[in-house]
Design goal:
single chain; about 140 residues; mainly alpha; Four Helix Bundle (Hemerythrin (Met), subunit A)
């Protein structure tokens, strides 16, 4: 299998991390807070999509056909990664929670849901780093 390029994933995670750090420097009533919160949420969404696409490629050798892998939903990609011991059960559960959160924020961009996403970000950044290392090592 050809080595997968995680440069974009890592770059997005770095942007997420920096936006999250900047966000914490402002009060919630300042426009800069809103700007950085929006950046954090957008990077979160981009990273989720990239993570699923890259992990799907890592899973290809575990399936008989590419079509079988291509038909996996986002959640199934992460469940399969857990079944093949690429991720721990706790990690899989967090990724599924991230996806649920993302699906909710996609349909309702309210302030409450945006703030729910922020609660996940510190662990998410760590999980993305670990996933990038896993993909780099395969």
């Amino acid at each position: 299998m050809q080595k997968l390029d995680t440069t974009y994933l890592s770059k997005c995670n770095m942007a997420l991390s920096k936006a999250y750090i900047k966000l914490q420097k402002y009060d919630k009533d300042e426009i800069e807070y809103e700007i950085y919160r929006s950046a954090v949420i957008k990077e979160f969404e981009i990273i989720l999509e990239q993570s699923g696409k890259l992990l799907k490629k890592v899973l290809r050798p575990y399936f008989h056909t590419n079509k079988a892998v291509d038909e996996l939903s986002f959640k199934d990609i992460f469940r399969q990664a857990g079944l093949h011991s690429l991720l721990t059960i706790d990690e899989v559960e967090r990724w599924l929670k991230y996806r649920d959160n993302r699906n909710t924020t996609t349909h309702d961009y309210g302030e409450y849901l945006a703030n729910e996403t922020l609660v996940l970000i510190e662990q998410f950044i760590k999980d993305v780093d670990k996933l990038a290392r896993l993909i780099d090592d395969t």
